[in-house]
């Protein structure tokens, strides 16, 4: 009894080694380092291989065993006292954007490694095994689709589909995996997960703006993407009287404010963006004959996202009828919102409270491997602030103290699930 109480106190006092975590991040960031202080380490390049080798070497030095599956996902395992239990897993990705930063993805993987190193330092055993994963091609920059490794793992698309994906030079994922020596033998998905945690920089400005250290992530927003094409008739801007025009731009200009209005009708997580526009023929003295633009609608609640979709569709139909122009609204992508598991979110919440960090809930507006992991196992995420909310940029930055705090939350949340023995 006394021993058990002592153990609980000792476990509560357990903290990761923040400087060691920071050093690992800085060392991995050397591989593919850019002049502006960022990282360019695209999926399945020689640099990716070097990054993978470095992390795998660290894992082996920490006594972990390493498994690679057929899509190149890597699982680094610290045995539990009951190895038949499914592992408590954490992970993320180590590929980057062409002008990426040091923290996106890399933090999630190295925070997991730091958890294991901390447990080793203190000789702490867990009943369930602990695993740290990095997933292949999360960024989707060199090869489409994004979140490829975790997507294949959970069966969102097939291994053959992923293998056939080509980069701009025509090299395929299958060839490149083989070339860098990371085409493993394990069948993707043939690998149980007891629970999945992912620590990540927020990639948005909410935590920094509210001056909070830990973001508890209850869900990831769903999204609906559209191509909208308005077709009119190009004609000379001078001789054509106003009442005889079929001006595609003016019709597009009626639709665009509605994208924002719809988002504003469904707060606090409604989002509406027109980020891309093509005008034909794009000449100052020609009435535009065709305007094509993108619409991006998001919300955290699927019902609300559907309502937004229906309102958008109805509005576009109305504008088409009023104007007499042909307006096509084509949905090109849809991801439902992903609510995380209450048990895992709860473990993050209670670890944060125990450690005394300032905290708030932050819904993720960006996709992560955890979305796919959530299809197979109870999953959740931990966010820490990043400077000015900026990522996918070489100036991406985060404070060592925040990264350390997120890693401490990960440690205690994982221990709650894996059970100290
Ligand atoms: Zn990421």
From TrEMBL:
Domain of life: Bacteria
Residue intervals of the Peptidase M20 dimerisation domain: 221-320
Database matches in InterPro entries: Amidase_Cbmase (IPR010158), Bact_exopeptidase_dim_dom (IPR036264), Peptidase_M20 (IPR002933), Peptidase_M20_dimer (IPR011650)
EC id: 3.5.1.87
Transmembrane segments: none
Cofactor note: Binds 2 Zn(2+) ions per subunit.
Amino acids binding Zn(2+) 2: 104, 139, 392
GO molecular function, one term: hydrolase activity, acting on carbon-nitrogen (but not peptide) bonds, in linear amidines
Family: Belongs to the peptidase M20 family.
Enzyme class: hydrolase
Coiled-coil residues: none
Cofactor needs: Zn(2+)
Pfam short name (any one): Peptidase_M20
Protein's UniProt name: N-carbamoyl-L-amino-acid hydrolase
Keyword Zinc listed: yes
Binding residues annotated for Zn(2+) 1, in chain numbering: 93, 104, 200
Annotated keywords: Hydrolase, Metal-binding, Zinc
The UniProt record lists the keyword Hydrolase: yes
């Amino acid at each position: 009894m006394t021993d058990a109480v002592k153990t609980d106190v000792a476990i509560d006092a357990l903290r990761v080694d923040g400087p060691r975590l920071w050093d690992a991040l800085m060392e991995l960031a050397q591989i593919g380092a850019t002049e502006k202080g960022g990282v360019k380490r695209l999926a399945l390049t020689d640099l990716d291989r070097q990054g993978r080798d470095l992390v795998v070497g660290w894992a082996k030095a920490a006594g972990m065993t390493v498994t690679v599956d057929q899509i190149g996902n890597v699982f680094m395992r610290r045995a539990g006292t009951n190895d038949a239990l499914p592992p408590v897993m954490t992970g993320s990705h180590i590929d980057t954007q062409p002008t990426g930063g040091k923290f996106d993805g890399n933090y999630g993987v190295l925070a997991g490694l730091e958890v294991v190193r901390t447990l080793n330092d203190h000789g702490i055993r867990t009943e369930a095994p602990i695993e740290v994963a990095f997933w292949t091609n999360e960024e989707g920059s060199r090869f489409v689709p994004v979140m490829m490794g975790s997507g294949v793992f959970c069966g969102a698309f097939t291994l053959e589909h992923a293998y056939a994906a080509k980069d701009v030079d025509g090299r395929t994922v299958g060839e490149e995996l083989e070339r860098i020596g990371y085409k493993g033998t394990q069948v993707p998905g043939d690998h149980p997960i007891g629970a999945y945690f992912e620590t990540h920089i927020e990639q948005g400005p909410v935590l920094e703006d509210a001056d909070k250290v830990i973001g508890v992530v209850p869900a990831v927003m769903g999204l609906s993407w559209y191509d909208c094409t308005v077709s009119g008739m190009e004609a000379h801007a001078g001789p054509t009287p106003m009442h005889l025009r079929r001006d595609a731009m003016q019709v597009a200009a009626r639709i665009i404010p509605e994208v924002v209005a719809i988002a504003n009708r469904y707060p606090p997580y409604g989002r509406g963006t027109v980020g891309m526009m093509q005008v034909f023929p794009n000449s100052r003295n020609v009435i535009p004959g065709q305007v094509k633009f993108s619409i991006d609608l998001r919300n955290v609640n699927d019902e609300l996202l559907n309502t937004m979709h229906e309102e958008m569709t109805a509005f576009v139909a109305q504008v088409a009828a009023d104007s007499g122009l042909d307006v096509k609204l084509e949905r090109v992508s849809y991801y439902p919102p992903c609510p995380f598991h209450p048990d895992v979110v709860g473990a993050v919440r209670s670890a944060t409270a125990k450690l005394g960090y300032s905290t708030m809930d932050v819904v993720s507006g960006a996709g992560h491997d955890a979305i796919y992991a959530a299809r197979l196992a109870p999953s959740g995420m931990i966010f820490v602030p990043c400077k000015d909310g900026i990522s996918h940029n070489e100036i991406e930055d985060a404070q060592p103290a925040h990264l350390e705090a997120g890693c401490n939350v990960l440690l205690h949340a994982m221990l709650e699930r894996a059970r100290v023995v």
